[in-house]
Every structure is written in C-alpha cells, then in structure tokens.
Amino acid sequence: MALRKERIDRGIKARSEDIFAVTSYREMLYLIAPRALPILAALVLSLIATPYWQRVLISASVFGILALSWDFLQRCGMVSLGQALFFGVGAYVSGYLNQSLGWSPLITVPLGAVLGGVFCTLLLIPVLRLRGIYFSMVTLVLPLMFERIIEATKILGGTEGISGLDPFPNHWVELYLPLVAVWVALFGLRRLMGSDYGLVLSAINDNDRSVISSGINIYVLKAQALFIGASMSAFAGGIMTHIYMFVGMPVFALDYSILPIASSVVGGMGTFAGPMLGSFILVPLSELLRGIGGLRIIVYSLSLVVFIVALPEGIFHYLQRKYSQFERWKAF
Amino acid sequence: MLFGTLVYGFINSVILALVALGFNLTFGISGVANFSYGALYVLAGYLVWIFINLVSLPYPVSVALSILATALAGALMYRFILLRLRGMVVSEVIATFAIGLTILEIFRYLGFIGFQYTLPVFSTGSVDFLGVYVDYQRLSIVGIGLLLAAFLYVFTHHTRTGLAFRGIAQEEQTALSLGIHSDWVATLSMAFGAGLSAVAAVAILPLGTISVEGGYDVLINALAVCIVGGLGSTVGVVVASFLIGYAQMFTSSYLGASWVMIVSLVAILIILAAKPSGLFGKQRELEERI
Amino acid sequence: MESVLDEIDHNLLSVSGLTKKFGGVTAIDSVSFELEEGRLLGVIGPNGSGKTTLVNLITGFVKPDVGRIVFQGTDITRMSPSKRAHAGMVRTFQMVRPFYQLPAFKNLIVPLYSPRVKRLAGGRYGDRDAVAKDILEEVGFERDSDVINKVAKVLPHGYLKRLELAKCLAMRADLVILDELFSGLSMAEVASILPIIEKLRVDGKTIIMIEHRLRELFRIADKVMVLNFGQKIAEGPPRTVMDSEAVRKAYLGTETEG
To answer: Which numeric CATH code is attached to C5-257?
Structure first.
C-alpha cells in the first residue's frame, strides 16, 4: 500500500479565517497570539533584563535592522555580501559628525543614515546595470578595502579609531531606540513590499524585462531601493557608534556582513520577520558562545551552509507552516 | 630604481594574474562565482605545510597531493552543495561565501597563525637581471605563469574537455543538446579553478608566510582584477593584472607600501565610473537574457 | 536627406537599413519598412529568419549595428526600451513569463504603475485593482468566474496569452507588437482572441503581429512582410505575398532540406 504525505490546514486556522472568529476566544487567541506575543515578549524582556542582557537585546536589535535591510535588498534583486559597507559608512559619518561638530547623537545618527545612504548608493549605482553577481562582488570587496585603507593611511583615527564620542542622552533612549527602530523597520518594510510600489520592486527581481517593457526605468527604482536598504544599515551603524562611544576599523569587518545573511537564511529569506527572528536567535546564541571566542563566525557560516541546503525556507516559514497546517500519511 | 620597479612590477602582475585566473575560469565556464576561492588558496598552502611538517612527506609529493586535494575539495563543494542550489543565484553566492569563511576561520581558530607557517622555496639563489636582483622563486613564478597560460590555451582549444568548457561557456543550451554534460563540466570547472588556486598558492606562498588574512587578501585581489578586467574574459583578467600590478608596484616604490590597497580601490572606482562591466567585459545584463 | 515632415504625415513607424550581427551570424540584414498609423502588419518567415530579433531591435532590447528607427516622428534608434514603451510602443513576449506568484489581475499592476499610464490618466492613478479587473474582462477573463483572482501559476496557456495582451491594453499603447501571440493556442482559442485584436484596430491602434499561424493572420492583416535568413524577401497585401514565388521557396525549401 503506497503512502503519501498530505498537508491540511488545521481546523482552527480554517475556523478563524472569516469574521466569525470574533465570536470565539480560542480563535481570537489563535490569531492575535503570533502577532502580539513577540512584541509583548520584547517589552517584558527589556524591562526585566539585567544590564548585560539589555546590551544583548540592543545588539540583537541593531543586527536585526541589518538583517532586515539585507533581506529587503535581496528581495529587490541585490544580494549584498558586504552589509558592513553601509553599516561602517553610517558608523563613521555619525562618529565624525559628533567628534568634529559636536552634534548630539540624536542628530548624528539620522544624519549619518541619510548621508551614508546617499554616499553608498552613488558608489554602487554603476553596478546596478550589470549582472547581479557584480553587485555581490563589489559589496564584498569595498568594506574590506576600506578597512585596510583606514589601517594603512591612518585617516579617521586609523587603527585607534575615534573614541570619546557622546553617548545617548539617557539609558532609556539607548535601550528603546534600537528596539523600537527594528520593529518600525519590520512593519515599515512589510507595508512597503505589500504596496504597489513594493510589488513593482519585487517584479524587477522576478522578471525585469517585463517591467522594462511596461515603460518603467528599473534602474531608478533599484537605486531607490538601494538607498532605502543602505540608509537603514547606516542607521544601525550610527546607533552602534554612540552606544560604544567609539568607531573604528572593525565596523567594516566581516561579522557585520555575514550575520545579516545568516540571520536571514536561518530565519527565512524574503519574509522580513524571518531575518529579525534569525538575528534574535543568533545574537544571543553568540553571546552564550562567547567563551569560545573565534568559534562565533564559524558557527554563523556553518549554520548558514547547513540551513541553505537543508532548510532553505528558514525557521519562520517552517513555524508558519506548523502553526497553520498539520501533516499526515494517507493511502493512495 | 625605475628599472627595478618595472621588473618587480612585472612579477607582481604575474602573481595577480595567477591568482585571478582560477576564479575567472570557474565563473566563465559554469557561471559559479566561487567566493571560497581565497580559502582554497590558503587551504592548499596549509596542506602542503602539514604534509611536509606533520606527515614528513617529501616536498614534491606534498605539493602534488595538496593540489589534488584542493581540486577535489572544489569538486566536492560543487557536487554536494552547489548542485542542489543550481539556478538560485542568491543561494549559490551565499553558500560559496559561507564555505570559504568557514574554512578560513577554522584555520584561524585552530591556531594556524605565526611565522613558522612557511613553505620552502623551489630553490635558493638569485639572478642578476640587468642590474636587478631577482630570486629564483620569483623567476619560477613568472615561468609558471607563462606555462600555465600556454597550457590553458592549448587545453581549451585542442582537447575535448577544454573545448567542452568553451562550448558551455559560450552557449549552454546548444552545448547541452550536443551531449556535453552541464553538471559534469561545472564540477570539473570548480575543480580546475580550485586546482589553479592551489598551484598559485604553492608558487607564491614561499615568498612570505601562510596566513588567514592572506586568504582574504587573495580574494580581494582576485575580485578586484576581475572587476577591472571584466568577469569571464581571460584577456581582460591578464590586462587588468598588469595594470593593477604595475600601479601597485609603482605606488609601493614611490609612495610607500601602505598605499597599495588604495590603488586597487581606485582602479575599481575608475572602472565603475567609466566602464562598469570591466575593460573587456561582455555586454550588460539585459541583452544576455533576451 | 529626406525631410522628417515626409514621415510625420502617415507613418507611425519607419525602419530603414536595420542590420544586426551576433558573432558570425547576421540575424537581421538591411531590413527596411514603413507602417502607417492604424494598420496591421504581419511579419512571417520560417524559423530562424530573425523575426524575434527584429522585434527586439524595434523595441530596443537589442541595439542595431546599422540602421535607423523612427517612431512618431522621433528618431528612437538609441533610445532605451523603457523609454520606447513610455512613448507608446508596447510588446508581448514569445516566451510568456507572468509574475507567477501573483493573481492574474495583480500582474497588471506593473504596467498600470508606469509613468505613461499616470500621464495619460491625467496625473492620477485611480484604483489600479479595479482598472486591472476591467482590462482582464476586456481580453476575455470571465468576470463571474474566479479566474481573475487565480494565481498566474495555475492559469492555462490561453489565459496567459490573454494576460500578455492585457498588458498592452493597460499601457494604452499606440503601437502594439505581438510576438507569436497565437503559438500554442487551439483554433478555438485563436478564434476567440481575434475579435479582441479586431477591436484594437477599430480603436485606431497600430499593430505588428509576428506569426506562424498564417491563415488567421492573413484574414486580418493589411500588409504582410516576409523574412528569410534575416532579409526581407517579400512585402505587400496578404494575397500578393501568398502567391509570391520567393515566399514559397523559402517555406517549402526549408521543408525539403531535412
């Protein structure tokens, strides 16, 4: 007797699909829980966590922004192997503005995001017309080059970096700015991609000649998307600078390039929620592994390879599937 | 000083070309950009060191084994990981990148850092070339480079496998319908590229020490050369190697060694501004997929 | 040098001396023709005669080596494909590739999002979803059935072809270029799409149709052009072309070769 695996929507999912869900507590809970729980959890955690774990939360949020922007760029057909480029440029711009002009972090961080975004977009515009692989190559190479150049020419503080920068006005801003920012980024990107503008952006990735023959200049749109992704990561960089009150060569390090990719692959590429979930898993994980030092990057890259081959859909898709469907074996 | 710079510039260019050709070859044939290239380079170097120092094998045997092992690593990488990701460019790129990273960082973690990690030179001694001293190792590098160029040319123009390589590179569909096995050729091209990186490693690493950072440098240089010369174009890679090679050498002689990386960066920026697809790069994206 | 005024009068599209080589192969060899506004031009020829290359050249996806293309009085030879579409020249693709994950009507959002549509609609887009559904109904998607909402992945071939046609309607094209729209369709499906194309003609659109289905094409074409090995070997009303000796040789010659 031949068996096959069958996936069926769960009863509760089917029941809660229309407006009658309002009449049942169970069904409402089913709908609201996945949406409210993470936010509640984040809120609660942020309040009860020790200062050490608050740092971890902040770090996870910053990396979450990086991961979200990476996923967004990837959805638009730009696979970046160097998110550190945007991150580092944002970090340095914020740090430099703070050091030389004395502006408050509340100004330098957003300014660093915009200026960093513009700079990186202009840098990468020529590559947008070429095959996607060029974008990956150039984004890989540039941050590594910047790192070595800063080391060699000792500009922007050289190997010592720029230290003694201002922190955020108070502890609560420091904690909640990144936390709120990453949630805003998540919701913002999802709305963006759900709009018609977002549809056209992902259409460019899907079938660009079709978009071209609809009279749309895809390169202008791609540049816009690049700016959005780049400035988001630059924003994250600026936050990082003022949390540690320091910016140096390491902002261009591979860590900041590989972690967003690992988060997205592990969490689920293309879903936005997945990359954020991924970073909130991987960052605390790496903290727990801190004792093992250099093993961290190996863990990221290995899990990347494993996931991309074995579970390419990512954890988030898997969870979503489990939540709304169940499997059973059925006879032919 | 000028003549010395010219001579050493030539050698530097050959080194760059040696390093970039493997990466370019794999991409040109199978369309796979092997971002683990730098890692394979370093892997080959460390393998030779291990064979010589820990297993006490003679030098020639170690070299041969290492080249084979690295080529095998490339083939296995394709067969077991990339094969499943064929066609999904995003995943391919990420996978090779991550594998390379893993290899390099594992070496770093295991402590393979230090001045004792060197490879023996082919032979000591040097030659007086019109007033400039060139050691035999560097001479051998040039020799190997030329030999390799000649070998590659003969291979791709006069052997069945080589012609199959070119066929797939030029027109995959037609080649497929002629019975040339796309996956098999891709595996071979990965192995080939990896083997080339091993050859380059064996020739160049004796000049200094084997280091994990060197692996990243190799990748950066290979990418820079390919970006400037045009991915997929052998002529472009060679020309770009000489351009960048000489520019680096002149900068190093007259401005100081710390400015070398800036040269590569400037070269990339200029090319992006003037001719983004590279000096000899093929046409832009759209036309290739009509 | 001929005056541009000569062309503005009645020719919507004017192509002269178009040549394109790919490596050693001359795909299009010195092709010239003119198309008046409101006419339907059929382009036929054996496989490999260069029909699709011609479309790619006219629409800008491939740049010619030699030659000139004038559309609505403007020299567009160097113009990018998106600008040509913006000017009103819209094409379908022989290899149909919709946005598979999107419902049928959402597939039209992209053309409805274009600056051209915004301009023609007086600066505002309106409700794109509603407009999309209307257009789909025009090309034969039954409004009552659920097919308008079905994901493109599950649509049968005939509907996908209609979707391609719908994109041209969405763009409010002046010149519609259909690249083998009828390929893969049954005679019944072709018969049901023909009236839609007729309606386009009645609305004053200019149409170029690349086709293999000669019988249906000859019924509606004003003028037919025949390509063989990249060269134009015949041009004229369908009747004349059908009787042409050169055309017979081109088609029949190919058959007896194998």
So the answer is: 3.40.50.300
